[in-house]
Design brief:
Thrombin, subunit H; four-stranded antiparallel sheet; mainly beta
Length: about 400
């Protein structure tokens, strides 16, 4: 994702992004936007779970087997018994500009009892001049009707931009909610402890600051992040891992990261990149190198089958599913990263494991940078064996 931008004002960035967005919208209105020559199903031996979606972003299964997922223009949808329905519509509130929009979603660990669903999105606090802001809200599902009811604003007022905004949401084994926030393409914010951009945050389920947070009276759990896109807790040792986008030409290329997240740790952006080291800063456990871009997104630890214990994640520009094999002798290291489904379906946004052991993968070709097929965007289902066969 090239960012050939100068360090000018935020409004100049947003004005430029709006111009690009207008062009993209014009393209969407043309039939040529869809490539009917190849629906991405040639030699595909998996299953299409849902299609004709619009930029699915984050996925999460409910205890009853329903799949909740966000669509960036402002919709939370649910798939139940093979049917996709709108669960919550926020398109009149959400600002989808560039990479902003309705992004993260997660369910409370006690969702079956309390029905809490958390949603992170970007909105416009003002339109002239345009001021984007990131917000986290909580809805409660009515147990009888399964309809959402607004419950509370969890957090608000975190600065937004057209890139690097609200990121993934994930509850940890400690019962705390973790929220990754990008640095809105202002690298200096990642090192600024007075702002929440460029950080991974930790909070109680009602949005208050936990008394045992690593920085007293602060939401900040770790800092020095550029654009963290995936959060996953190891199912056995509870360690938190993340995927993160490396520089896009503003400081070299590529060097997308897999990080092992530790409290108070500083992951170095924009001071170090790739394999560079500096006292007091964390070098990624693994990165893509200076010639290869993954543009890594959602990640999970596999709990079943031959891939059990692997950390897998999807890639946008990389157009692939990646499997990181953890060193069996050192759980803080990665032995290798293998690539699957390369250019089979286009840009892949997220992956989640079902109770059936199958992998549910969000295809995201309508995000303004892809080449959509007639069925896009989609959620597809594949077993580990099918993924290996499609490789």
């Amino acid at each position: 994702m090239k960012r050939n931008l100068k360090s000018s004002t935020l409004n100049m960035h947003i004005a430029s992004a709006c111009s690009v967005l207008f062009i993209c919208l014009c393209l969407v209105s043309c039939d040529e936007w869809f490539d009917d020559d190849d629906d991405g199903l040639n030699d595909f031996n998996g299953q299409v779970y849902a299609d004709h979606l619009d930029t699915p972003w984050e996925l999460e299964f409910a205890p009853d087997g329903r799949l909740f997922f966000t669509q960036r223009p402002g919709v939370v949808s649910v798939i139940e018994n093979g049917k996709t329905n709108v669960w919550l519509k926020l398109d009149s509130v959400v600002a989808e500009i560039g990479e902003s929009g309705l992004l993260g979603v997660t369910l409370h660990p006690d969702f079956a009892q309390n029905g809490y669903v958390y949603v992170g999105y970007t909105y416009a606090a003002s339109k002239s001049p345009l001021k984007l802001v990131n917000k986290l809200v909580r809805y409660k599902e009515d147990p009888a009707t399964k309809a959402p009811m607004f419950d509370m604003v969890v957090m608000d007022g975190i600065a937004g931009n057209y890139v690097h905004n609200s990121g993934p949401l994930e509850f940890g084994p400690d019962g705390k909610l973790y929220w990754a926030i990008g640095e809105i393409f202002s690298p200096e914010l990642a090192q600024d402890m007075n702002v929440l951009n460029g950080k991974i945050l930790r909070m109680n389920d009602n949005g208050s600051i936990p008394s045992d947070n690593p920085f007293p009276a602060s939401y900040i759990y770790s800092l020095g992040h550029r654009n963290p896109q995936g959060l996953a807790f190891h199912p056995e040792n509870g360690a938190l891992w993340s995927t993160e986008h490396g520089p896009s030409e503003e400081q070299g290329c590529c060097m997308d990261e897999i990080n092992l997240i530790k409290p108070t740790a500083n992951y170095g952006w924009p001071i170090i990149r790739g394999s560079q080291t500096q006292a007091g800063l964390e070098t990624p456990v693994y990165h893509s190198g200076d010639t290869t871009t993954w543009a890594p997104t959602g990640g999970i630890f596999v709990t079943q089958g031959d891939w059990k214990g692997s950390f897998i994640f999807t890639g946008l520009r990389g157009q692939a599913l990646y499997r990181a094999t953890i060193d069996p002798n050192d759980a803080t290291k990665i032995q290798k990263v293998d690539r699957y489904l390369y250019q089979k379906f286009g840009r892949l946004r997220n992956v989640v494991e079902g109770a059936d052991g199958k992998l549910y993968i969000a295809v995201s070709n309508q995000d303004g940078r892809g080449d959509p097929k007639t069925q896009d965007d989609r959620i597809i289902i594949l077993t580990q064996k099918q993924i290996e066969k499609n490789n």
